[in-house]
Each structure stands twice: as C-alpha cells, then as structure tokens.
Amino acid sequence: MLVISSFEQTVLLEVAIANLEMNGISKEQILIAPFDKRREEIKLFDTIQRSDGISLLDLAAVLATIFAVLGASYGFILKWGPIIWGLIGFLFGSLLGYAIDYVLTKKKTKRQSKDPRVATEVVMIVECDPAQGSKVEEILWSNLALGVTRIDSN
Predict the structure, then answer these.
(1) What was the pLDDT predicted at 104?
(2) Membrane-spanning regions, if any (predicted)?
(3) What end-to-end distance do the CA atoms of the chain give, in Å?
C-alpha cells in the first residue's frame, strides 16, 4: 500500500518522518520529493494560451490617456498644434507608465523570490502494509499534511 501526502516544507515534516520511524516505518519505505518553484521572467504581452496574471500595460494606458489629453489641450497654445502634442503626450505617458510598472513588478518578484516565508511544497510517499495504512494516514494528518491519499497495491 502507498500513502501519498503533501506538506509545506516546515519542521512538521521532520516531525512526521520521526513519528513514522517510531511506528515501524523504515527510512527505505519513505520517499520525499520537494517541488521547485517556477521562476520565469516577466513577459510583455500575454497570449490566449498563456497568461501570468501580471499586466504591464494598465498604467501605461492610463498615463497615455492622461498625457494625450493634456498634450492636445495645451497644444492649442503651443507651436506644433494639438495633434502633434497629443501624440507626444501619448508616447510619453505610455513609456512612463510601462517603465513604472516594469520597475515595480521587478521589485515585487525579486522580493518574493528572496522571501523565506514562501514555503516549498513537498510530496511524501510512504510504502507500508495495509494494516499500517490508517496509522500512517493518522500520523500525516496530525502533522498538518495538506492532503493525503491511500493507494492499494492490489
């Protein structure tokens, strides 16, 4: 019988292993595999198939609109006219908004990657006799497993 569970990588995982060993499960019957966190660079544009939930164009659109309106309004007073100043304001606002979003998002993702509180999930697979299955499951649940399932070998 296999008992499969998932944990956050904390001290409780070590306690669960110690409890299993005290109840007759040897180290050779326990397999622990940590998951790697996905580290991916920020993409400028999302596609239909892939979206990371981070948009770098929101602030760019807002600032482009604001600066385009201001450029067109003041363009009536300035030499090149409202259309040229509106386009200049649009370009300046969109570049400024994109740059601000990019810098803030880079800082946020860098801070999250260095954050020690971000726990890596770990999978534990325990091979045991069917008679020990319920005890193993009880030990795993008592040590705050995120999920537990049993698979019979039959």
Answers:
(1) 87
(2) 56-77, 83-104
(3) 8
